[in-house]
Amino acid sequence: MGSYENAKNLIVETARQLTNKGYLMATGGNLSVRIAGQQVFAITPSNYDYLKMLPDDICVLDFKLNSLEGTRKASVESGMHAAIYKARPDVNAVIHTHQVYASALTLIRTPIPALFDEQTRFLGRSVKIIPYAPSGTGMLANTISRHIGDHNNAYMMQNHGALVFGNDMERAVHNVEILEKCSLAYLLALCTERKVSGIPLIVRELAFASLRKDQKKAEAGDF
Ligand SMILES: [Zn+2]
User: Fold this and answer.
1) Structural domains of the chain, count
2) Spatial CA neighbour of 124 closest among 101, 95, 156
3) Is 117 helix (H, G, I), strand (E, B) or coil?
4) Using one digit for the tens of pLDDT, what is the confidence trace for 35-74?
5) For residue 161, what is the enclosing H or E element?
6) pLDDT digits (tens, 9 = 90+) for 109-152
7) pLDDT at residue 218 in the model
8) Ligand 1 centroid vs 218 CA: distance in angstroms?
9) Which of 85, 147, 155, 173 is least enclosed by beta carbons within 10 angstroms?
10) Distance from Cα 13 to the centre of ligand 1, integer Å
11) Could you say which of 13, 77, 177, 219 is catalytic?
C-alpha cells in the first residue's frame, strides 16, 4: 500500500458521490486533498471518467507539480490547486465543479451577497466572481491566488464554474451543496425582479467570525 492510500481512496469516493449528486459531470471539474504536514497533494487525473476512477488513477504531486505517485496525467488545473494550498494554509480540500446554477451566475457576473445564515457560516461573507482566465493556464492559477486572500470558502469563476474549499473533504462537499442551493435560490429571487433581502450585517459578521475561528484551528493543524 502506497503512503498516500487514504487520500486516494477519499478522492475516489468523493468524486463518485459528487457525480451521483450531479455536481460533477463526465470528466469536468477536479478535486484534491492536501497531505498533512507535507507540501504535497493528491488530485484527480486529467480527462478521466469519475465513475471508472480507482485509487491507482489518482495523482500525487508536490507543490512544484513534480509527480510523486500515479501513472496518469494529473488534472490540467493542478497548478491552480497547488496555488490555493500555498495561499491558504487553512484549506485541506479543494473541489472545482462546473455545477449549473453557480455557473449561471458567473455568466451574468453576479456575486452572491450574504443571503442565508449557513452560507455566511461556511462559505464566507459573500461568494465573489473571479475574473475569467483560460482553463489549465498559469494565468488562471495566478488570478485565483490573487483573489482568495479574503478567507471565503467558495468562489465562482467567470464563464467557467465553482471553486470550493474545506478544512477537510467532508466540509468541502457540504460547501459545494450550500453554494448550489444559494445559487439556485438567488437566481429564482432575481427572476422576480423584486428587491432581494440579505441577512442583517451583525449576523453575517458573527457567522464569519465562527468560520475564521475554524480556519485558524485548521491552520494550526487542530482538525
Ligand atoms: Zn473547470
Assistant:
1) 1
2) 156
3) helix
4) 998 999 999 999 999 999 999 999 999 999 999 999 999 9
5) strand 161-166
6) 999 999 999 999 999 999 999 999 999 999 999 999 999 999 99
7) 93
8) 26
9) 147
10) 20
11) 77
